[in-house]
Design a protein that fits this description.
The protein is mostly helical. The protein has five helices and no strands. The protein has a single domain, classed as Up-down Bundle (Four Helix Bundle (Hemerythrin (Met), subunit A)), CATH 1.20.120.330. α3 packs antiparallel against α4 and α4 crosses α5.
Length: 136
């Protein structure tokens, strides 16, 4: 199970780096960059909830659906700012099911504010993984 967590975090780290790279370009007027950044965010979000699910399974708190996973992860102190994570989920779902340029622009701007939370949560999970391996 620890290997599963490790593998998920490795994929998440790479995806998060790619998202950060896209956002660092600061090309807010180029539709291709905006769309690519949104796609990167969708990958990162997907990998986050799957990583959190693996952590929850490891500690005996299985959850199936993303909303449940974020609620349990918040209760278990794996994430902070539950409302922000639920807003991320809403943004991801909205853009996945319907593309609207105005909505995409709003979500792109939201993603820029989410990045520090994503990076901080990743660091927290990576540290927790290290603790789990050390105390195994």
């Amino acid at each position: 199970m620890l290997q599963k967590i490790h593998d998920k975090l490795e994929k998440l780290e790479k995806a998060l780096e790619k998202l950060e790279f896209m956002l660092s370009k600061g090309i807010d007027k180029d539709r291709a960059y905006i769309d690519s950044s949104i796609q990167r965010f969708e990958f990162v979000f997907e990998l986050f909830w799957k990583s959190l699910k693996a952590f929850l399974e490891y500690v005996g708190k299985p959850a199936i659906f993303p909303r449940q996973i974020f609620e349990e992860a918040y209760k278990g102190n794996l994430i902070d700012e539950e409302k922000t994570w639920l807003q991320m989920m809403k943004d991801r779902n909205q853009i996945s099911h319907s593309y609207d340029e105005s909505l995409a622009d709003d979500i792109y701007n939201n993603i820029k504010t989410y990045l520090p939370i994503l990076k901080g949560t990743f660091s927290k999970l990576k540290s927790l993984e290290t603790d789990l391996v050390t105390n195994k």
